[in-house]
Amino acid sequence: MSAQDHLSAQDRPSGDKRLSGDDRLSGDDRRTRVRTLLDSVRADGRTSLTAPEGKVLADAYGIAVPGEELARDVDEAVAHAAHFGGPVVLKIVSPDILHKTDAGGVVVGVQGSADIREAFHRIVANARAYAPDARIDGIQVQELLPSGPDAQEVIVGAVTDPTFGKVVAFGLGGVLVEVLKDVTFRLAPVDADEALSMLDSIGAAEILRGVRGAQGVDRWALAEQIRRVSQLVTDFPEIAEVDLNPVIATPQGALAADIRVILATEQPKQRRKYTRDEMLASMRRLMEPRSVAVIGASNEPGKIGNSVMRNLIDGGFSGEIHPVNPRADDILGRKAYKSVTDVPGEVDVAVFAIPAKFVAAALEEVGRKRIPNAVLIPSGFAETGEHALQDEIVAIGERHGVRLLGPNIYGYYSTWQNLCATFCTPYDVKGPVALTSQSGGIGMAILGFARTTKTGVSAIVGLGNKSDLDEDDLLTWFGEDPNTQCIAMHLEDLKDGRAFVEAARATVPKKPVVVLKAGRTAAGAKAAGSHTGALAGDDAVYDDILRQAGVIRAPGLNEMLEYARALPVLPTPKGDNIVIITGAGGSGVLLSDAVTDNGLRLMEIPADLDAAFRKFIPPFGAAGNPVDITGGEPPSTYEATIRLGLEDPRIHALVLGYWHTIVTPPMVFAELTARVIAEFRGRGIDKPVVASLAGDVEVEEACQYLFERGVVAYPYTTEKPVAVLGAKYRWARAAGLLDGGRAVGGQSMT
């Protein structure tokens, strides 16, 4: 029996737009019904479903659709239209014609026997001309959906993203979807709350609530369409794409006018999975090793093996360091071994400093020695086209249970262990920030920034080709590491997006995760077979799903580094009310813009607080928000207004705008600000305070002074301090630490 025969015999559409598969079918019955259909489509050698077959899936999963019937001849079309009793839409039904409109296979708003007959024959003729060999199964007769100011066209769909797997999409529908690309994405499946959040995540969200006298749409019905599509593709991974376009949303409900379903042609390659305990066990021995072997250690300056040895020794690593070189007896005063298998005792990490062609054989020895981690510095693997060589070392690692960091990396730093396993410049400033990079050049930029700004780090790790260990392993470790308070990651791709999201969701409630995603392309959309697929450009999906995971996405390298440096300094805000106190009106305007641009809220100053501020500012100053104390005021005015901002419990964060005057020099401002904030912290009042300092070069020293004392301050910019504050707020919301915040795990932590 063909798929179409199956449809005709068992699943003839009922025409009842109120049908809800979730209500009529048990979970097992629903899946059995869809499984039978998909197997039949596969047996026909097809990868796309016809509209009536799509209706079977919709009915099974409760995806609301208008009444529709399949007409196999013109008389059936007339009868079905008469049954609906109003204007109808006629659509070609052919497994060989995916884009019906392009084929002239859709006629909208037909009514009356004569018009139905004429439209039927016209559609069939157009289809024959468009695709002479196409199989035509009939004409779909569908109720015409409502139009008018209360009816909104949207798109609901799902795609299979190469990084994140099943992803559900929502946005404006119809022609606008391809022009405006106002679409948002989430990992499938989504729950009801996540589906509802998607309605507010598009730029045109206000339209759905009703504008210019129009009523808002039925949000629950629309969210249910999203949720049910997400469940369908989760239950059936072989469904590559689902497209409901358009969905007509009205105050009374949401109905999918057209359903397009495309099946995958191949199964994605599965990566080996590790449990959380397995990750932590191997990462602990990598980041807190007691014994390190350097394969390719050298006495010759300028060699990578020499640089790694020097950094390990000079950095003060207290564990054992074992050089391995078959042509040396002694390296830098330490006994050298011909093979890593000759090294006595347990070894936690083997650092490779040998050419790529020798790595596989040496890795076999590492496996026989039962060393759990290999740090592969050499290049010459997949990044140069040597995929087979990289596949070989991955297979060796998996066979012996050796986790691989790299290849093609600069190494790594674990500062709290005084471990510098790299051929680059050493770094030993301990602190709360863990930094990772996929690129060696970015890794050195991280190092230079950290040194220049005196940023203390817990680790700096190169990932390179990510043949095995990747961001989710590091996130899992740093999430538990007591020395790490903030994690910042540069990445060009994710090998397993879902594993990363799982690790991020577990980490974000405890500490911020900042990501700089490079390589913003939409190349994957070229091969898409649906509207949803064409809209799912790489960067659009990354952006929404990283946000869904609670990750702070940095727009550039400097922002990533500044967020990492500043977020551990700022205390967590306890509310949304932000007050700007400035000595310059122009700075106040720019700071206000920055607050809005970063999704923050300026407090509406109540009358009593306004009167309190006015006591300290001159008559020509301005209360309100910003509070403009004017530029000629002495230090006492800055101090009094800052004190008031810290004392009033209704104010949750302060943004300070300073400009350089002889009356209040930069260091005087910095010292009084730091002193007052320290006093309040001693009293248990700890609010985030950021500052913008404008003036001569002395403001640079003042900013450094403030930063070292817990005030995030920047010279010559109004944007950067507020961007950092915005990042702190985004993390606090994602972690569920603000009133009304929803933790990324799905439950409020307040």
TrEMBL record:
Q: Which domain of life is it from?
A: Bacteria
Q: Which residues form the CoA-binding domain?
A: 286-381
The Basic and acidic residues compositionally biased stretches are 13-31
Region (Disordered) residue ranges read: 1-31
Q: What is this protein called?
A: CoA-binding protein
Source organism (scientific name) = Streptomyces lasiicapitis
